[in-house]
Amino acid sequence: MASTASSTDKKPKRIDGDYQEPEYINIIVSDPLRVDDYITYKVTTQTTFPEYSEREFSVRRRYKEFANLREHLKQKLSEKPKAIKFGELYPLPGNNLSSLFGQGRFEADFIEERRKGLEQFLNSVANHNFFRFVNYLHRFLQDKDASFL
């Protein structure tokens, strides 16, 4: 199997005869962790998309950061009306009264449902023909030191 990458390229593409590794991105949201009065989630990304500097990386994010990401993407979409042809922005899992004002947000069932919804959201935007190229999303997925609050 040959590689077309130079020694400085962090993500070599695999080429074998006429086969070239397809571009893909897969995001897993896992490992919910309570920190004070909120939950953080581990976001692990595996990709061959050239927009990313590595093939696999992880960050921790809290729900509010996901909400801010969605608002940013919504704003980007409104700036490019023709981009709507690529489809709608996937929703975040909703809040309910117990999650906002009580201990319900720390219950295992609620956390698991939210985790699944966040994973679906991220995979939908990362694979979206418009959102895929938004730098804010790249930073959200890769930058361990950045806050998106």
From TrEMBL:
Write down any Gene Ontology CC term. Answer: endosome
Q: Which SUPFAM superfamilies match?
A: PX domain
**PROSITE patterns recorded:** PX
Domain of life of the organism encoding this protein: Eukaryota
Q: Name one Pfam family in it.
A: PX
For this protein, the record's PANTHER family field holds: FI18122P1 (PTHR10555:SF170), SORTING NEXIN (PTHR10555)
Q: What's the protein called, per UniProt?
A: PX domain-containing protein
Q: Which organism is this protein's natural source?
A: Heterostelium pallidum (strain ATCC 26659 / Pp 5 / PN500)
